[in-house]
């Protein structure tokens, strides 16, 4: 059973956005009650004022800009790195369509993209950023290795930025501020130097639990060599050594294409899931529930729910057999074998109370009356769509190869027509 978090006050249950938007002392105190029952990462910030419309002085005085940004504001190392990776990813996709690819390589890329996705969703997000469950040391090490393979920044930098995103959403203290536009929220934040507010308020984000964690500390210290080995060298060499894949094919598919696709799938949670979709849990906040984003992000697309209940280990009101959520299934399996424990989840009463006050109760009318058999059937169909959407590069490459009359290679170097 998951740990149920009940509010101490049942008449009015504050949510993250309510406390941030009202700034009322009484509400903030009630929020503190709930917060203590979850984790004290300061989800309920009420005291700061950040002018979201204020432009940086540098932009106001700049004579020459690129898409509105001065040369000095752009993080050129990231622009060059990401540009090269995107070119290689596109080339890798075309290369795979018109050249023989080992069948095991396609199976391996499905496995490694899922595994590294878990590193971010289960590890970087649900475990280290939000502490929605507790993990034993072997699981922490596995998640840190998988998180490194995604090439999405160290656990420490990702978690600090993500806590700031929850604490001051859609302000200039939010490192991925959707108020700066869709592209900035998606990946523009990686191409620009941080605004002064992001750095200033980033220091106020509690990170003691992270800096005192030796796995997080050393992963951050050794991040570049670890990324080179785990993100690029290992995924390239394993197919070459294990089933004699061509080294260029292995590098392009298992390293370049895989990292770029997984990152874009995860980035859509910051971009699309802050602009498009339903807001049934809290209609006053920007984050949304978006089915397609949930499919491609392996269960991270229930973003309206997540910003309302960020301490829920499932990132969704529903569990993994009711909705496509491989990350929740992963955590439940880890719990079953003793690697994860203290899984946190708000009670149904808490969820319903919040929906009643801030959400759209009518949105859930049909869902609440479904029996378990129907819920599981809908969940099964959702998993089929989820797997199809999440792994689109692999099966589209296979289809294009069939259309073009190309061939896959099997183990003994005979061709699979
Ligand atoms: Zn968000
Ligand atoms: Zn989050």
From TrEMBL:
Gene Ontology molecular function: iron ion binding; stearoyl-CoA 9-desaturase activity
One Pfam short name: FA_desaturase
Needed co-factor(s): Fe(2+)
Superkingdom assignment: Eukaryota
PROSITE patterns membership: FATTY_ACID_DESATUR_1
Main location: membrane
Keywords linked to the UniProt accession: Fatty acid biosynthesis, Fatty acid metabolism, Iron, Lipid biosynthesis, Lipid metabolism, Membrane, Metal-binding, Oxidoreductase, Transmembrane, Transmembrane helix
GO BP term, example: unsaturated fatty acid biosynthetic process
Membrane-spanning segments: 76-94, 101-119, 222-241, 247-276, 380-404
Protein topology in the membrane: Multi-pass membrane protein
Fatty acid desaturase domain: residues covered: 114-310
CDD domains, per the entry: Delta9-FADS-like (cd03505)
GO cellular component: endoplasmic reticulum membrane
Location relative to the cell: Membrane
Comment block on domains: The histidine box domains are involved in binding the catalytic metal ions.
Family to which this protein belongs: Belongs to the fatty acid desaturase type 1 family.
Protein known as: Fatty acid desaturase domain-containing protein
Organism per entry: Medioppia subpectinata
């Amino acid at each position: 059973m998951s740990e149920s978090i009940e509010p101490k006050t049942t008449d009015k249950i504050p949510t993250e956005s309510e406390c941030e938007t009202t700034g009322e002392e009484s509400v903030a105190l009630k929020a503190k009650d709930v917060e203590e029952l979850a984790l004290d990462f300061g989800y309920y910030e009420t005291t700061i004022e950040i002018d979201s419309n204020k432009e940086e002085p540098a932009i106001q005085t700049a004579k020459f800009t690129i898409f509105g940004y001065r040369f000095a504001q752009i993080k050129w190392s990231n622009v060059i790195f990401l540009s090269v990776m995107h070119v290689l990813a596109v080339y890798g996709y075309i290369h795979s369509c018109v050249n023989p690819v080992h069948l095991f390589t396609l199976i391996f890329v499905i496995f490694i993209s899922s595994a590294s996705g878990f590193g971010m969703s289960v590890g970087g997000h649900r475990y280290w950023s939000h502490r929605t469950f507790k993990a034993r040391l072997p699981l922490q090490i596995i998640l840190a290795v998988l998180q490194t393979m995604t090439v999405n920044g160290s656990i420490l930098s990702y978690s600090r930025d993500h806590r700031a995103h929850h604490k001051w959403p859609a302000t200039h203290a939010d490192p991925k501020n959707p108020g700066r536009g869709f592209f900035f929220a998606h990946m523009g934040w990686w191409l620009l130097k941080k605004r002064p507010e992001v750095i200033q308020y980033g220091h106020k984000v509690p990170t003691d639990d992270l800096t005192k964690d030796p796995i997080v500390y050393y992963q951050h210290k050794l991040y570049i060599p670890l990324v080179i080995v785990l993100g690029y060298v290992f995924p390239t060499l394993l197919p070459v050594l294990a089933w004699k894949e061509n080294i260029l094919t292995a590098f392009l598919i298992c390293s370049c294409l895989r990292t770029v696709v997984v990152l874009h799938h995860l980035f859509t949670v910051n971009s699309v899931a802050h602009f498009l979709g339903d807001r049934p849990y809290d209609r006053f906040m920007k984050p949304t529930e978006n089915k397609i984003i949930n499919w491609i992000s392996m269960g991270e697309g229930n973003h309206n729910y997540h910003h309302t209940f960020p301490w829920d280990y499932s990132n969704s009101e529903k569990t993994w057999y009711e909705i496509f959520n491989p990350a929740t299934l992963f955590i439940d399996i880890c719990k079953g074998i003793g690697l994860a424990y203290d899984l946190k989840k708000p009670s149904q009463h808490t969820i319903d109370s919040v929906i009643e006050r801030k959400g759209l109760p009518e949105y859930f009318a049909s869902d609440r009356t479904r029996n378990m058999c129907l819920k599981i059937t809908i969940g099964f169909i959702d998993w089929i769509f989820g797997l199809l959407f999440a792994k689109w590069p692999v099966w589209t490459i296979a289809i294009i190869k069939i259309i073009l009359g190309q061939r896959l290679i099997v183990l003994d170097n005979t061709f699979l027509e």
